[in-house]
Amino acid sequence: MELLISEEKLLQRIKELAREIEEDFGRDFLVVSLLKGAFVFTADLIRSFNFPVQVDFMWVSSYGSSQESQGHIKVVKDLERDIDGLKVLLVDDILDTGYTLAEVYRLLQLKGAKEIKTCVLLDKRERRKVPFEADFIGFEVPNLFLVGYGLDWDEEGRNLRGIYAVH
Ligand code: IMP
Ligand code: MG
User: Fewer CB within 10 Å, N side or C side of the chain?
Assistant: First the structure.
């Protein structure tokens, strides 16, 4: 494993992201965080906001067990809150093929969200299979398998403080 982004760089960039989000999206939104991968990022992101914010979680998984999602997204745990008429900041760890965020975005629209912006810590742009761009991006990363800071490799490595490439 090779260190790609240190804890220090992550925290510094997340503070900047929080400011970008406030400038662009204001202070009045619900954070919808995707389990499991985004829970560590979400914890640091929301503590970088200088205003109160509410958080809800959704757990979605792709069918099958391959490392790559294949466009079939299953809701394992749905939101607790009614989001009809709310502004939503949708937060995920990494934007890869785009299947997950494109589908969750569609589900949040169906639930009546007034406005949705998306924030991802990492963007593996060259892997995209469906056209989807996030509004706020922490880092663009190369096409390598990454672990740490919430991201797992077969459920291992989520508790690493930095982000590592697995070789
Ligand atoms: P997408 O639907 O392909 O965009 O998948 C996004 C999801 O795949 C993320 O939320 C991660 O859970 C997972 N994922 C994609 N790339 C990686 C990686 O390099 N390491 C760990 N998980 C990944
Ligand atoms: Mg995930």
Answer: C
Residue 62 belongs to a domain with what CATH number?
3.40.50.2020
* Residue owning the nearest CA to atom 15 of ligand 1: 96
pLDDT above 90 for 67:
no
Q: What is the dihedral of CA 63, 147, 160, 158, to 10 degrees?
A: 0
Q: Would you say the C-alpha torsion 83, 89, 91, 97 has a positive or negative sign? A: positive
Share of the chain above pLDDT 70, in %: 95
Answer whether residue 60 is part of any domain. yes
79 is in which domain, residue-wise? 8-141
Measured CA to CA, the distance from residue 144 to residue 112 in angstroms comes to: 36
**Number of domains into which the chain is organized:** 1
Ligand 1 pocket test target in 96, 130, 151, 156 with most atoms within 8 Å of CB:
96
Note the pLDDT tens digit of each residue in 43-55. 999 999 999 999 9
Q: Give me the chain's average pLDDT, please.
A: 95
